[in-house]
Amino acid sequence: MRVELITTGSELLLGQIVNTNSAYMAAKLNNMGFDVLYQTTVGDNYDRMRDVIKNALLRSDIIITTGGLGPTQGDITKYVCAEITGHQMIKHQQSLEQMNIHFVKRNIPMTDNNMRQILVPESSYVLMNHNGIAPGIVQEYNNKYIINLPGPPREMKDMFERELRPFLQNKFGFSQVIQSQVLNTFDIGESLLETKIKDLILAQKNPTLALLVRPSGVIIRVTAKGNDFSDTEKIIEPVKQEIYRRIGEYIYAENDENMETVTGNMLKQKKLTIACAESCTGGLLTSRLTDIQGSSDYVMGSVVSYSNKVKMEQLQVPQEVLQIKGAVSEETAEFMAQGVRKNLHTDIGVGITGIAGPDGGTDDKPVGLVYIAVAGQGKTTVSRNLFSGKRHEIKYRATQKALNMIRLYLTQNMS
Question: Name one Pfam family in it (predicted).
């Protein structure tokens, strides 16, 4: 079944709020086996909304709108849909009773315009709103379905799960499901990654492959359609294993697992401790490591060493290194990592020094230059990096690189 999602509201077109409803519904509907082929946003204009919905009916089997079910004159979605289907609006008694209870419980007056919320087209199927007032609406029209859901995400999500999902399951059944699995990569660019698995992408039918660039790296999404999730697992697994065979060294996690979780779990499993010495990242690496529950088992502490004085006094970076090589140098990063490891008595020390910008760069040491060192027992690894982007982006990319270096260090030296 072809589905089109239509989000309504001029505030969306003005960029005043972010449309999270479509992302939520698309994921849910795709997993249920529906094909979400189009997403459209339209403002609170009667004629334009009518044109958008009529156009959707030409190419889709199910049209789902969100927004425009409230009490104001700008809430027009269900009126537009009722005009298209040729139905009159009537009061929905159960919603009216629920609305009266809503206002009595809160001891606030109910204005007359709230009656607009409980009007529904005659002959429609009503989806009850358990977190608000305005019910959802399902209308069958020329063997197609127009479905109206409320705009507030809390109301929409609850209505989708408790009302719309059962309706769709009972109405259509699901001969197939769609499942996606994600492989998270780091330190490999999109173009090189595509080259390494291009034949798999070109051959795709079921499963399909897609590359998506994220701040954390490039992700590979493998999507399969099957009779059930056991079926899709069997379809995905061989392709996933082939991808691992080709680029496994770049894959650090699957699905929603992030770099700090992976690195933290490795530290915990190996019963190792870590300390960080951060200059340009200002404590962001430590913050990411300690975002993970139970991180106190392995994160012993950190030093934010913006000034050379702190680098010398707290981390024992030699003054001559700072004078000759500079604060942003391979040597300084190495001394920072070794110093924080020694002073905080940890198994691993990390040192980060660089220029996050927007000022401070030179021809020899431009903005984005960051040195990262990981020190362990008898061995220190240092990486020179040139990151692009704004200040916060450079800081994030530096910490992502540092986390990956820790992960690789643990993999290669602590097995």
Answer: CinA_KH
Strand 217-226 with 177-185, pairing: antiparallel
Q: Judge contact between 9 and 152, C-beta under 8 A.
A: no
Report helix angle 229-247 to 190-202, nearest 10.
130
Contact 382, 333 (CB under 8 A): yes
Cα 323 to Cα 100, 277, 308, 332: the distances in Å are 76, 19, 10, 10
For residues 248 and 183, what is the distance between their CA atoms, to the nearest angstrom? 10
User: For the CA atoms of 259, 262, 263, 267, what is the dihedral angle to 10 degrees?
Assistant: 170
Mean pLDDT check: name the lowest of 170-179, 223-232, 370-379.
170-179
Which CATH number does 2-172 carry? 3.40.980.10
H or E stretch at 226? strand 217-226
What pLDDT, in 10s, does the model give residues 202-258?
A: 988 899 999 999 999 999 999 998 888 899 999 999 999 999 999 999 999 999 999
Buried b (16+ CB within 10 A) or exposed e, 238-273: ebbeebeeebeebbbbeeeebbbbbbbbbbeeeebb
* CATH of span 177-254: 3.30.70.2860
The span from the CA of 334 to the CA of 280, in Å, is: 15
pLDDT tens by residue, 305-361: 999 999 999 999 999 999 999 999 999 999 999 999 999 999 999 999 999 999 999
Q: Which residues pair with 38 in a beta bridge?
A: 4
Token output for 64? 């789902």
- Report d(CA 106, CA 88) in Å as an integer: 32
Cα 54-2-177 angle, rounded to 5 deg: 155
Quickly count: other Cβ atoms within 10 Å of residue 203's Cβ: 9
Query: Which fold, 259-413?
Result: Maf protein (3.90.950)
Task: Express the helix, strand and coil content of the chain in percent, nearest 5 each.
Answer: 45, 25, 30
Give the Cα separation of 240 and 122 in Å (integer). 50
pTM > 0.85: yes or no? no
What is the tens place of the pLDDT at every residue in 66-123? 999 999 999 999 999 999 999 999 999 999 999 999 999 999 999 999 999 999 999 9
CA atoms within 13 A on the CB side of 264: 20
d(CA 1, CA 66): 19
For residue 62, pLDDT over 60 is answered with yes
